Amino acid sequence: MVRLLHIEFIKLWNNRASKILITSYFLLLTSIALIAAIKFDIGPVQFHLADQGIFNFPYIWHFNTFVTAIFKLFLAIVIVSMMANEYSNKTIKQNLIDGLSKKEFILSKFLTVVSFSLISTVFVFVVSMVLGLIYSDYNEFSIIFSDLEFLLAFFIKLVGFFSFCLFLGIFVKRSAFALGFLVLWVIFEQMIFGLLGWKVMSWPNAKLIKDFFPLESMMNLIKEPFTRLSAVQNIGEQIGENMRFDYNVYWYEFLIVIFWTALFIYLSYALLKKRDL
Amino acid sequence: METILTVNNLTKKFGFLTAVKDLSFTIEKGNVYGILGPNGSGKSTTLGIILNVVNRTSGDFSWFEGNTSTHDALKKVGAIIERPNFYPYMTAIQNLKLVCKIKEVPETKIEEKLQLVGLWERKDSKFRTYSLGMKQRLAIASALLNDPEILILDEPTNGLDPQGIHQIRQIIKKIAGQGTTILLASHLLDEVEKVCSHVVILRKGEKLYSGPVDGMLASHGFFELRTADMEKLQALLEKNASFGKISRENGTLTAFLKEEMNAEELNKMLFDKGMVLSHLVKRKESLEEQFLTLTKNN
């Protein structure tokens, strides 16, 4: 396993573009701390974002995992191209001839994906912990370590999303087209959802089905945290809108994403096995 | 003798096209094999199958008497297929280190092999800056990293300039001289003739011949003769039962033997009959001639 990871590391780290993207990604993860610096000072309206409770434990787990997940697009590019480049350089052929089995090849890519997700999770944990300890209004031990399922959700979400990217890289074989396909897929999921709700069934049912789509299910793991802010809640109450949504992470939502992850990895393997190189 | 590779009734179909048809042969340790065939005769497909990158339709093959899985066996094999494939953004050294990791061999051999192919001075240059000849030599170095039991080369001199071709041939000869088994696929016959002891000849995916180079045609060679009275010579030889086809071209008479006869014998016989030769050469058909005969008749 270490050998497979090392192989992937040599391939990635010697590539300048990947190196820059990976470094920027982790810098961006850290940069979420900069939100703390957002301050508006317009005459009577004084607004300091850090004072709005976004860094309160345990809300910070929810907020940071949601926001930082947006940066995963950087790594998506790295992952898609690390897969597609093996095809365009034909190095995948050489790897197999040199004695890497097809299973090992997929496993080495998957392990890389898991490592990326794990390191991201640890990063987000540390950054959030530091920010929380500085700004949070509540610092009791039990509060700090509640709602940690958001971190697990973050991890599973990344693994799922990157596995999808991996599959696209193998399936499409060209990194630019694979990324295009990814965007297309996002639109496709929304279109299916729209069609279902509009013509086939009621909107709540369509919503239910939508949660089973690969990208939607990953999105759905961590729901948007903004309406949970007390400031936003207050506004909601004033205009008479009920904004008390369900923000929890449920076990079956994990299961859906894990199912897709397994499927994508299996499909990648099946595709590699079936294809003549 | 130790068997390195056994191929049994291997068939590969691409849709309607049958690229390899019912192919069987074995590779014994210590010999240098050539796979010959015109373009599109299934050479690369055959190599692709035994190297685990092309799926077979039917039949089977086994490495090292079937004692290991294919991908483990490949760690004891060195192979270059068509074009050298490396990571363009990595240097020679970095690429070879990666191969060492994949083959699970120590990195100590890198310098030795780069010296062997004459690339040690350029070890820190990125692969994409290499010329085609250098890329091909790096591929050979990479294939040798594990001191393979067998070296498989698919068209190793394709697209190279005369110097590059010469360099690669020298390297192949050097390796063959060390007793490494080599499997060389090529359509360049003089290349195969110079280094191979055994050949497998393919045409349209079918095996026409496999065995030692000499035994390819049941032929006893031919004489090239010149004398003052060519008409008389031809008449004389046509009466002799030892000779088959006789032809005259550019003032030289070519007489093919039907049975064994050496040059002294013929010379003496003709002299006794009062004919003095100005030119007498006994030759075997070149591999090219044999190959063309073989592929034409079928």
UniProtKB/TrEMBL annotation, chain A:
UniProt superkingdom: Bacteria
Record carries keyword Protease: no
UniProt cross-references to Pfam families, sorted A to Z: ABC2_membrane_2
Membrane-traversing stretches: 20-40, 60-84, 110-135, 150-172, 179-198, 250-272
UniProt keyword list: Membrane, Transmembrane, Transmembrane helix
Any single GO CC term annotated in Swiss-Prot or TrEMBL for this entry: plasma membrane
GO terms of molecular function: ABC-type transporter activity
Presence of the UniProt keyword Lipid metabolism in the record: no
UniProt protein name: ABC transporter permease
Species whose genome carries this gene: Flagellimonas hymeniacidonis
TrEMBL record, chain B:
Family annotation (PANTHER family): ABC TRANSPORTER, ATP-BINDING PROTEIN
Molecular function terms from GO: ATP binding; ATP hydrolysis activity
Domain ABC transporter, residue spans: 5-229
Keywords: ATP-binding, Nucleotide-binding, Transport
UniProt-listed Pfam families: ABC_tran
UniProt name for this protein: ABC transporter ATP-binding protein
Record bears the keyword Transport: yes
